[in-house]
Amino acid sequence: MTPSTRDGPADESTDEPATDGSTGGDRSTGDDRSTGDDRSTERRAGDAIFRSDLGRAGRSAATGAERDPEPDGGPRVRIDGVGKRYGDQWALRGVSLDLDSGVLGLLGPNGAGKSTLMGILTTFTAPTEGTITVDGVDVREDPTAVRSRLGYLPQEFGVYPDLTAREFLEYLGALRGLSRATARERAVDLLSVVNLADAADRRLDTFSGGMTQRVGIAQALLADPDVLVVDEPTVGLDPTERARCRNVLADLARDRVVVLSTHIVSDVEATASDVAVLVDGRLRTHTDPETLVETVDGRVWECVVDDRATLAPDYLVTNTARRGDGRRVRVVADDPPTDDATPVDPTLEDAYLALLDDRDPNGGGRP
């Protein structure tokens, strides 16, 4: 039996290699586990899978136990001049970032290099140039040691639908080398961390998309990683589940690095302490959300235009909503786009779209 995946759109990028989340055996094997009796038999026969404890992996994320301090004299994650070339095409070039505890929101249009960067960080892909270190360990020199410090939730996360949430996490804990006792303890603790303790013994095929995503976050935390990498975790979720998922990530980032790759700017605005924007394989900016928003402060307007009217093509329109009196549009521009335009508070999405825009800033171009 192969694990099922939650519903949701696939990554639209066409020029970056996909990652499947199989770091360190996170994803399930292809064995047939179709009935409860089969599962019990396999667990008894597979006790050898429950190998030695991974030392630091036994610490519970739910107990508030003190984590390893960040390395002296440097950031927890250092990305230095990283590039990746496929043939004669560079998917990523000259990217440098220093990351400490908190959420990094990784933004960029399709094909910008986000998936490539995450592939290198999670050791799926080797960089053509540059280095990445996690707690001082180079991803190329010792990828196994780096994997032990990483947790990863891919966009398409597969589960065994006939297992309960507790059984699923215990099984993945076994594949990661946790002892039976530690795997059980971690499963219980992590389901509490992601607010699924009451659903621990429900089969996964009864879970909503948001609940499945939270199980995905839990599996990424089994080894108590210093760095958590998540790819589009809220795609396809309803607003309530999106908020729950974001809250979990924000809580986890208090003492670890969380790299959040997404197209949903509001998720970054709600959770990120830092934001990095990739465009055409290069880093366009790395700053905090507030500073990025300030780049369009005093330059965001709303106005109502007649359906038959059009704004000059030089204006950057970030939102349009139909109203009874016409179309209410949101515009980024140095000057009011119409006589009755009113200034409004800028959002991170306004600033992000302006950053990507190449038009004359007098009509909404790049700040």
TrEMBL record:
Q: Where in this chain does the record put each ABC transporter domain?
A: 77-305
For bias type Basic and acidic residues, the affected ranges are 28-46, 65-81
Q: Which Pfam families match?
A: ABC_tran
- The answer on whether this UniProt entry bears the keyword Metal-binding reads no
- Record region (Disordered): 1-81
Classification via InterPro entries: AAA+_ATPase (IPR003593), ABC_transporter-like_ATP-bd (IPR003439), P-loop_NTPase (IPR027417)
* Annotated SUPFAM superfamilies: P-loop containing nucleoside triphosphate hydrolases
The alphabetized UniProt keywords are: ATP-binding, Nucleotide-binding, Transport
The similarity comment for this entry is:
Belongs to the ABC transporter superfamily.
What is the protein named?
A: ABC transporter ATP-binding protein
Q: What is the protein's species of origin?
A: Halosimplex pelagicum
